[in-house]
Write a structure and sequence with these properties.
- The complex is a heterodimer of chains A (114) and B (115).
- Chain A contains no helices and 11 strands.
- With 114 residues, chain A is mostly beta strands.
- In chain A, the strands form 2 sheets. In chain A, strands 2, 4, 5, 6, 9, 10 and 11 form a 7-stranded mixed β-sheet that branches. A 4-stranded antiparallel β-sheet of chain A has the order 1-3-8-7, with no helix packed on it.
- In chain A, strand 4 (31-38) and strand 5 form a beta hairpin.
- The radius of gyration of chain A is 13 Å and the shape is globular.
- The N and C termini of chain A lie far apart (37 Å).
- Chain B has one domain: Immunoglobulin-like (Sandwich).
- Chain B is globular.
- The termini of chain B are far apart.
- In chain B, 37% of the residues are buried.
- The chains are: A mainly beta (114), B mainly beta (115).
- The A-B interface holds A 4, 31, 35, 40-43, 45, 48, 50, 56, 58-59, 88, 90, 92, 94, 96-108, 110 and B 1-2, 30-31, 33, 35, 40-45, 48, 88, 90, 92, 98-108.
């Protein structure tokens, strides 16, 4: 079974803090994704990566950056957390670049910024 | 930009009944996928239907795709309380400039199956 794990289920941070959300997949998938999910807005793509050290902006990249130094790990970074970044963050991976395979999701991290 | 839109937003049925959810989208797609999300958890892939397919089955799930109407439906037969979840459709665009592994998700249908 594909496993996508996220470093924390719940996280509480203060405004202005630098926040790291980590995601690891164990199936050698090339693509990895970060989404945020908010009530009434559905899932929105923040960033994705189709290879090590490669990244592309999604629909809402402002206020976020990402890092992919190893194939299995994709990190989402909030440089200076703000209250409007309080949300559920979901990481996903899929098999091959350029092929619309299904995505496998982690359990999510519910981030609260106070 | 929102590509897929599910309808209805919420659906409540009794155990044993069938549940039908619809998804409409705006532009041409390569394929359409359905996902389920249990409360507070990650999404789980249910089924993928390609643009040249009209119907697909998987266990109690039946998905149809009508590309002329730009719509899809997900039917869950003989529903169970464990089917209570949010259901999302997701599309990848056929004209996405090579980034066709990106999916665009709808806002979901919340299905409640009462025992």
């Amino acid at each position: 079974d594909v496993k996508v794990t996220q470093s924390s289920r719940y996280l509480v941070k203060r405004t202005g803090e630098k926040v790291f959300l980590e995601c690891v997949q164990d199936m050698d998938h090339e693509n990895m994704f970060w989404y945020r999910q908010d009530p009434g807005l559905g899932l929105r793509l923040i960033y994705f990566s189709y290879d090590v050290k490669m990244k592309e902006k999604g629909d809402i990249p402002e206020g976020y950056s990402v890092s992919r130094e190893k194939k299995e790990r994709f990190s989402l970074i909030l440089e200076s957390a703000s209250t409007n970044q309080t949300s559920m963050y979901l990481c996903a991976s899929s098999l091959l670049a350029g092929v619309p395979y299904e995505q496998y999701f982690g359990p999510g991290t519910r981030l609260t910024v106070t | 930009s929102q590509q897929g839109e599910e309808d209805p937003q919420a659906l409540s049925i009794q155990e044993g009944e069938n549940a039908t959810m619809n998804c409409s989208y705006k532009t041409s797609i390569n394929n359409l996928q359905w996902y389920r999300q249990n409360s507070g958890r990650g999404l789980v892939h249910l089924i993928l239907i390609r643009s040249n397919e009209r119907e697909k089955h998987s266990g109690r799930l039946r998905v149809t795709l009508d590309t002329s109407k730009k719509s899809s439906s997900l039917l869950i037969t003989a529903s169970r309380a464990a089917d209570t979840a949010s259901y999302f459709c997701a599309t990848d665009l056929s004209d996405s400039g090579g980034s066709n592994y990106k999916l665009t998700f709808g806002k979901g249908t919340l299905l409640t199956v009462n025992p």
